[in-house]
Write a structure and sequence with these properties.
Elements (H helix, E strand, L loop, with lengths): L15 H11 L10 H11 L5 E5 L5 H5 L4 E6 L2 H10 L6 E5 L13 E7 L1 H6 L4 H15 E11 L3 H8 L6 E8 L40 E8 L10 E4 L3 E3 L1
Parallel strand pairs: 1-2, 1-4, 2-3, 4-5
Antiparallel strand pairs: 5-7, 6-7, 6-9, 8-9
Pfam families: Methyltransf_11
GO molecular function: S-adenosylmethionine-dependent methyltransferase activity
Family: Belongs to the methyltransferase superfamily.
């Protein structure tokens, strides 16, 4: 399988010890990886009803989702330090629950027990850890197991389709995937440069699940949002074929 090492460094982002030490060092700082909820809200509201049972893999700031009407959000993290911090911080918010857990082994939860899994950077962290392909495969197998048919896995990542689609298409998973791209927070378009496309417009993909030749990102550090809908049955790892040019990769 593919491993994207372009954003990795000497830190082992897949190791609980690294995150425990980092959270202790940074104390009660507020973490909202990659994108704030305000930027992701159009996608979340489009694909995830407020009544959904949501699993947040990697503790972020889910309080804004509660303010937006979501009523059942389970947050897990490999770091016991941040779980305890968040549990205390949001003890007054019954819609938010926190557990220490490794995304590669979530057998505490029953099969098909969630409507949505949201991932802002957790898969990317595993990609920078040891045994990255195996770790990512284990995580995606668990995500697939926990989602009900028709459920949504929303992956927010730095990884472009060439390094994410091969993992998403692993044996046993059957996703209908729609791709969106949004600029990083604070990015400003070049003077005189304007885009007629809305961020809510799906990004075209080739039959191999790649960006079209010549596709140019206005922001080279954009985030990719893969909205993966769990379909019935397993896919077996064969390449997915678009059911319409550009927007969606499906069986």
């Amino acid at each position: 399988m593919y491993r994207d090492v372009s954003l990795c460094n000497t830190y082992n982002y897949g190791d609980a010890l690294y995150w425990d030490a980092r959270y202790v060092e940074e104390g009660g700082a507020s973490f909202d990886w990659y994108q704030r909820y305000s930027a992701l809200r159009p996608f979340v509201r489009k694909f995830v009803p407020t009544s959904s049972r949501v699993l947040m893999v990697g503790c972020g700031n889910a309080e804004d989702m509660v303010k937006d009407g979501y009523v059942d959000i389970m947050n897990i993290d490999i770091s016991s330090v941040v779980v305890e911090m968040m549990r205390k911080k949001y003890a007054h918010v019954p819609q938010l629950k926190y557990m220490q857990m490794d995304v590669r082994d979530m057998n505490f939860f029953q099969d098909e027990s969630f409507d949505c899994v949201i991932d802002k950077g957790t898969l990317d962290s595993l990609m920078c850890g040891t045994d990255a392909p195996l770790s990512v495969s284990q995580m995606l197998e668990e995500v697939n197991r926990l989602l009900r048919p028709g459920g949504i896995y929303m992956l927010i990542t730095y990884g472009d389709p060439s390094v994410r689609i091969p993992h998403l298409n692993q044996a046993g998973c059957n996703w209908k995937i729609v791709l969106y791209i949004i600029p990083r927070p604070g990015f400003e378009s070049r003077v005189g440069c304007s885009s007629a496309k809305s961020i809510m417009e799906p990004v075209p993909l080739t039959e191999r699940g790649l960006l079209p030749a010549g596709f140019v990102l206005e922001d080279p550090d954009s985030h990719y949002i893969y909205v993966c809908k769990k379909m019935h049955g397993s896919f077996g790892g064969a390449p997915q074929i678009p059911n319409q040019v550009g927007a969606t990769i499906a069986q």
